[in-house]
Amino acid sequence: MDKKELRKKYKRLRNTLSPEAVEEWSIAIANQALKLPIWEKTYYHVFLSISEKKEVNTEFLLHILQGKDKSIGIPKADFKSFEMEHILLQENTPIKVSAYDIPEPVRGIAIPPQQFEVVFVPLLAFDINGNRVGYGKGFYDRFLAQCKPECLKIGVSFFEAEEKILNENIDFPLNYCVTPHKIYAF
To answer: What are the binding positions for substrate in this chain (predicted)?
Structure first.
């Protein structure tokens, strides 16, 4: 399938998930993530989930990272430039839902993209080669292009891999993708 078809398919599949399934599978993904060889790193980027879109709830990953005393950056999107700013998540970081229904930091200490060692990437679909399909605005492709080449890119998905994404413009490839049942390494 091409990206457009995959976006439709996975938005439809997500919409069939109950709130209980989203929570149960999000916990399973966080538990699977504990098996990844990433926990010696210091700087992690984690997106804040859009519950209306039934995204993987990253709250559980955040708890793990906070429990391990890691430095966590969360994104703030600019829909004029399609760029993101990355704010250090602290106890007092104010979070507000944007006009696009995205929970974001209001203000805080900025972290440059080059500082991140691990980035948890939102996606709609991925294939067995680590190619991903995002929402189509390119926020994460622009961000990941600014990260160091050795930065680990980890997708999180409720669903298993597609065989192949048909498209010339493939989003930035992943190093890993974590599902409730499996870790894919690319």
So the answer is: 50, 55
